Amino acid sequence: MATDIKALRRDFPTLAQIVNGHPLVYLDNAATTQKPQPVLDALNHYYRDTNANVHRASHALSGQATRAFEQAREKVARFIHAPSAREIIWTRGTTEAINLVAFSVGRHFLKPGDEILLSTLEHHANIVPWQQAAAATGAVLKVIPLTDSAELDLDAAGALISERTKLLAIGHVSNALGQVNPVAELIRLAKAAGAVTLVDGAQAVGHFPVDVQALDCDFYAFSGHKMFAPTGIGVLYGRSEWLARMPPWQTGGEMIKTVSFEATTFNEPPFKFEAGTPNIAGAIALGAAVDYLQAQDRAALMRHEDTLLQQLLTGLDAMADIRIIGRPRAGAVSFVMGGVHPQDLATLLDMQGIAVRTGHHCAMPLMQALALPQGTVRASLAFYNTSDDIAALLAGIDKARELL
Ligand code: PMP
């Protein structure tokens, strides 16, 4: 199996670029990942050769498009070890997937005084929809605090969970700090109290295998674009018992069985939750990204990413003016440089062709809890990064320091 990273990089045309006079060092993978040629080919092939709407027409092209679209759903189900493809709902991304649950479960099953448990580490996409559901139902948000090392405080979580806890919505991997949260443990505690559980997997699926049955969560949400597929396509896994009970959230074509002016009957899940023409090309291309990942030796890719992470942490640790935030374990490392605005550092890195991200990383409550109003600089990895990329970042920080 291919674990030659230099060879794998050739599958990603975007990586072979010169940016600001330097070879691109792409370390903004938590924002979005680059796309391998088979994913680009899948998009092109769909639009060039099989473009037709799915499910409705009885002609050959529509049949081909429908088969490819539904096969992609099956690939995604296998990818996260869902019991059935009928538990895979296509969405625009993680944000839409969480909004769907916040609407169809949150607004329909929560009552005044019920508690929704989140954590301080959440992305805004896993905060705001619950805040809206709470405002609409009279439910209350509870937030798991952090320990001194900025990790989730499991003891505090245990104390917060009670029979009032009706819903746990928790990130698998923090996009802001690269921490892997103890989701299985939290799900176990929440389920014992009778709560529904949702995992925001946006930052997990591109880095390590996910098994929704082993996690035993009711919902798992992720975005294609964070795992080498296009933007505009994402996934909500939902346990079939829940999908059967939940009302639809958007309505219109595709999601119905029968319509009259008096009444409508709804289609079965997952179609009940997929109103309108879906992102057909995106779903097929996400299937191609799954195929691409499954064809690799994922354990070797994980080891490679971990080696890069350790190289980066060691290099940053050796810099007296750099403070690493939290305990990064997957994907992303957030840091600040004493007396330097994160944006200034990022601009100087960009001039050297190094792409990182700065600011609050869509986690303003987290930055507030960490007393970092200007946010951090975040370098985030994918398996196609190399030890040279990390060396370039570390040298780039040294150069920026000279210029500042
Ligand atoms: N949750 C997390 C942890 C994320 O990192 C992101 C994207 N930065 C999202 C949710 C939202 O994903 P999307 O914008 O693709 O809907």
UniProtKB/TrEMBL annotation:
This is Cysteine desulfurase. Its cofactor is pyridoxal 5'-phosphate. Belongs to the class-V pyridoxal-phosphate-dependent aminotransferase family. Csd subfamily. It comes from the Bacteria. Residues 25-393 form the Aminotransferase class V domain. The keyword tRNA processing does not apply. SUPFAM superfamilies: PLP-dependent transferases (SSF53383). The keyword Transmembrane helix does not apply. The lineage of its organism: Bacteria, Pseudomonadati, Pseudomonadota, Gammaproteobacteria, Aeromonadales. Catalyzes the removal of elemental sulfur and selenium atoms from L-cysteine, L-cystine, L-selenocysteine, and L-selenocystine to produce L-alanine. Its EC number is 2.8.1.7. It holds the Pfam family Aminotran_5. It comes from Zobellella endophytica. InterPro entries: Aminotrans_V_dom, Aminotrans_V_PyrdxlP_BS, Cys_dSase_SufS, Cysteine_dSase, PyrdxlP-dep_Trfase, PyrdxlP-dep_Trfase_major, PyrdxlP-dep_Trfase_small. One of its GO terms (biological process) is cysteine metabolic process. One of its GO terms (molecular function) is cysteine desulfurase activity. Keywords: Pyridoxal phosphate, Transferase. Signal peptide: none annotated. It catalyses: (sulfur carrier)-H + L-cysteine = (sulfur carrier)-SH + L-alanine.
